[in-house]
Amino acid sequence: MSESSWVHPTRDDPTVAALSESVGGPMGRRAGRHPWWSPVRVLLLLTALTFAAGMLSKAPCAEEEWQDTTQRYSHMCYSDLPYLYGWRGMSDLHWPYTDDPEVRAEFEVMEYPVGISYWAWGTGIVTWALSGAPDVDDPERDLAREGTVYVAVNAVGFGLVALATTWLLAGVTRRRPWDAAGFALAPTLALTGIMNWDLLAVVFVAGAAWAWARERPVLTGVLIGLGTAVKLYPLFLLGAVLVLCLRNRRWAALASAFSAAVIAWLLANVPALVTGPAEWKVFWTFNSDRGADLGSVWLLAQQWMGPGAWIDVDTINLGSWAFFLLWCAGVLVLGLKAPSTPRFAQLGFLILAGFLLVNKVYSPQYVLWLLPLAVLAHPRWRDLLIWQAGEIFYFAAVWWWLGGFLAPAQGEYSVVYWAAIVLRLAAQLWLVTMVVRGVLDPDEDPVGREEPRETASLRT
């Protein structure tokens, strides 16, 4: 596709156009092109800068080697990584799925899917080597320092993952590479990218959207399956595939995507299933037995109702899955009845947003789950910034609440923290509303329906 057919955000997005007035106004139609700085290269640079800012935000905790419990909340620089490095046995080079009784007596099993466990184990080996290959039985080992190195090793890997995600997003809609700027410049990418391993699944979500746009259902299924092996939520993208294939009677594409996803997921899980089936099951039982946790509407309800509330784990499991199934049914009807075929990112975003609205835990970094789909589903900076503002407010509130800085004069719970949960969900619902409007009225969809590959393939 020629450069002249690209949609430039200063001519397409009212918010960007207004901001551009401070630097000379929207891009002119006869503006020249730089011989080297293509949109994708600019986007990759912006991603690198955003991610570097995120690493810099962790500096206060890194300087204290994550040992200052107050600082990690006051400076909002918390990360799970340095603690799990020691708590889950990565510091001692143990395979996450070993069933060795001595190892299991000393270290808890990784409560994450296999993809994250493999990565955590591999980066643990790299950390051990960079730390001088210390004797794992040496009582004088400086595990705090090694934990800091572990964060740095993971951060380098996450940075590469973020760059790959931007590259894929820029290629989903051929004439709109700049839509990926919503990911590259996202403040939530900087704030939450190094908190946990969630970013690893994001690249598979972006890859699935990229593959579907290129009429490659098998590759779409493979990437969804591999993403599900990293984190469960990419599985829900099969719902978007289902709606699109039902609407357009693409039975071969439906079978190919679903079968490829299952095979890829199974192959990714084989090493864990063979070496430690009991340890492999921990992820599933851990999430089933988990109660209401940070950020969820269930936690807000429990705290508001007070001790003795009827909202137990079984009720939460039943209620959340019932709501999600009804939500998915609504997305199915919306997708089938829409006046024009919805886009993959629109359907995927709506399905995943419904899951997060009633999930029993809504950690700050879960915003990364929605981020690549959001910037493709509704590339409008005004609405993306409204959504991001809700996420940022919650990000600050949860750390200050955990640090005791929002504790009321009397009582255990903070109305400010409750307000942050509500505001975050309201901001998410605002973006959901904008996406639904674009599905129901193609004229309100910023991307439109004239894509040369994706739309054409869906109508065949």
From TrEMBL:
InterPro entries, per database record: GT87, UCP010361
Keyword Membrane in annotation: yes
Major localisation: membrane
Keyword hit for Oxidoreductase: no
Membrane-protein topology: Multi-pass membrane protein
Cell location: Cell membrane
Transmembrane segments: 112-130, 150-170, 182-212, 218-244, 251-274, 318-336, 348-372, 384-403, 415-436
Pfam families listed in its UniProt record: GT87
Entry keywords, A to Z: Cell membrane, Membrane, Transferase, Transmembrane, Transmembrane helix
Region (Disordered): 1-30
Highest taxon above the source species: Bacteria
Protein family membership: Belongs to the glycosyltransferase 87 family.
Protein name: Membrane protein
Species this protein is from: Nocardioides daphniae
